[in-house]
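Supplementary Note 3. Input sequence used for the single-chain structure prediction.
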Amino acid sequence: MAVGHDGGTKTTYREAMREALREALRADDRVFLMGEDVGRYGGCFGVSLGLLEEFGPERVRDTPLSESAFVGAGIGAALNGMRPIVEIMTVNFSLLALDQILNNAATLLHMSGGQLSVPLVIRMTTGAGRQLAAQHSHSLEGWYAHIPGIRVLAPATVEDARRVLAPALADPDPVLIFEHGSLYNADGELAPPGASVDLDHAAVRRPGTDISLITYGGSLPKALAAADELTADGIDAEVLDLRSLRPLDGAALAASVAHTHRAVVVDEGWRSGSLAAEVSARIAEESLYELDAPVERVCSAEAPIPYARLLEQAALPQTADIVAAAHRAVG
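The predicted structure, written as discrete structure tokens, is reproduced below.
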């Protein structure tokens, strides 16, 4: 880490998340981290590197290769007063624990008549673009955003990565945090200590007047780059970072569309049944008469993500695709 020009701290997304974990472990003895290779190996993506040596094996626990078992153990620990942070290597592996997440974590509060809270945080890496082939390149956060009883977050900036964990741990209900793998090496500047992040509201990352580029997570840098390119074409694009996928900030969507009257929704998930479809539907339901053009969607190709780099890049939403969609909307 380095000190920025305005007194903030220059760091990476990975280091920001690690510092958030360190702060949580120091602040509350009930907090512990568990998952595959989070200890000696330092996490599959290096996020927890050094935490085992600092906090010991009781607080940083390497688990067997059984997502159903260790997510279930995390649920049990949360029910008994602990504050577990469960790391799942990549989102595809969370499917092995989907029964625990859907049928236990998300439902116990409701099925117990409000008697059993599950203050569980589950972190997982999502997204493609790193040549990990079809089985490790999913963007399934839209699936989880379909489930009542959980909160789904997708921090896209260094600041959000640093600040999202503390309020997630304070939430009495399960919180899923999706960290796009392409962001771990991204750097940025943190606000001075004591800053907080608003989990309930989307963030306008770039104001504009002509069109809204609506996205989240790993697609945010592409949307910002597209906005820069559109400026050269005389199109002033606003970039809205959803941040929270469940609940969605419907008011922010309506406000942005009321301001620009056009929208492009960028989502690395597949188009059919996607989060982009939900966002588009909400705009149609609540802001139809504000629109001067149909909502455009930029999503991944309807195919398993290829391994070959050129094919993978062709299958994913890219800056050029966002720019083209914006031009179609503006006309």
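The CA atoms of residues 36 and 63 lie 5 Å apart. The chain has a mean pLDDT of 95.
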